[in-house]
From TrEMBL:
Transmembrane segments: none
Source species, domain of life: Eukaryota
Stored PANTHER family: NMRA-LIKE DOMAIN-CONTAINING PROTEIN-RELATED, NMRA-LIKE FAMILY PROTEIN
Chain ranges of the NmrA-like domain: 4-241
UniProt keyword annotation of Transmembrane helix present: no
Keywords (A to Z) from UniProt: NADP, Oxidoreductase
A molecular-function term among this protein's GO annotations: oxidoreductase activity
Keyword Oxidoreductase part of the UniProt annotation: yes
Name of this protein: NmrA-like domain-containing protein
């Protein structure tokens, strides 16, 4: 199997620009899928205009017409039915590989996570659909389609800047979960982009797999020590209990509070996302080294100035 012509949908989101940049630096021919009503513009990038409703027949024709053999989806993971339509069209059009919108802060293959977070349950439904459709032979001897999902932990650099990692950079305040010494895995946006490219470059090794990656495994206290060293100041420590915070936030989340959903993802992605002992940790296979935490944090702080 050789992949040469890759389409990306979701290029203007949080992760999409980093994935697009990595693809454009690779040897792949790259296209961005852009809905008819979208105002996004991608300079010097081949753009394929797709129907707003993502109807399967229209998408299938466009994938065939443009010779797409790899599809990367970076739209919100909550768009389950939209992803299913993209997947069905890709199957019909002879696409070789799909990378769905997994990229999880939390692990959608973990039963406790599925119980706590409906968002992750949606990601599992997409993966279940992929496993089903990729198990089918296509007509005309086109063979089977394959998939790869990447579980990344929190988007580390983005999460530090946005507060998702439970640090307030401006107020110099750390909200430490369960003492702050729990090891968690997290990945920087550019590294996720690199991982996507490496997956597509190694189609045989990565076929039909849920792969875990990280830029580093660390703790909130380790991050705080570096932040205090870089800023030359002592930060305020706010000790929090995930056992107290999660039930209250989850209740608000189930009531429709979107901010509460972010809070649950934020906390759970810290206390339950240690990939070090996962059998599917793919850093070595994809050639992703552990990154220098101090340099990353320095860059995040510089971005706040």
């Amino acid at each position: 199997m050789t992949i040469s012509n890759v389409a990306l949908i979701g290029a203007s989101g949080t992760l999409g620009p980093s994935v697009l940049s990595a693809l454009q630096k690779s040897s792949f021919k790259v296209s961005v899928l852009n809905r008819e009503s979208s105002k996004s513009v991608y300079k010097d990038t081949h753009t394929i205009t797709i129907p707003d409703d993502l109807n399967v027949q229209g998408l299938t024709a466009l994938f065939r017409e443009n010779g797409i053999d790899g599809l990367v989806i970076t739209i919100a993971g909550s768009y389950v039915e939209e992803q299913k339509r993209l997947i069905e069209a890709a199957f019909n059009a002879g696409v070789e590989r799909i990378i769905p919108a997994e990229f999880g802060s939390c692990d959608s293959a973990d039963e406790k996570t599925l119980e706590i977070l409906p968002l992750m349950a949606g990601k599992k439904r997409v993966r279940d659909f992929l496993e089903e459709i990729c198990g089918k032979e296509r007509e005309g001897g086109a063979g089977k389609m394959t998939w790869t999902s990447l579980v990344t932990g929190h988007f580390f650099d983005y999460g530090m800047a946005s507060g998702l990692m439970m640090f307030d950079l401006k107020a110099k305040k750390a909200f430490l979960q369960d003492g702050g010494d729990i090891t968690f895995s997290a990945t920087n946006l550019d590294t996720i982009g690199t991982a996507v490219v490496r997956v597509l470059e190694k189609p045989a090794d990565t076929a039909n797999k849920l792969l875990y990656i990280h830029s580093h495994s660390t703790t909130q206290m380790a991050v705080l020590d570096i932040l205090e060293n870089l800023t030359g100041e002592t930060w305020e420590r706010v000790q929090q209990s995930s056992a107290d915070l999660l039930p209250a936030a989850r209740k608000r989340m189930l009531g429709g509070d979107k901010h509460a959903t972010e809070e649950v993802v934020s906390i759970w992605g810290i206390v339950s996302s240690d990939w070090r002992n996962r059998g599917s940790l793919a850093n070595d296979m994809l050639g992703l080294p552990e990154e220098d935490l101090e340099n990353i944090l320095k860059g995040v702080l510089d971005g706040q100035k």
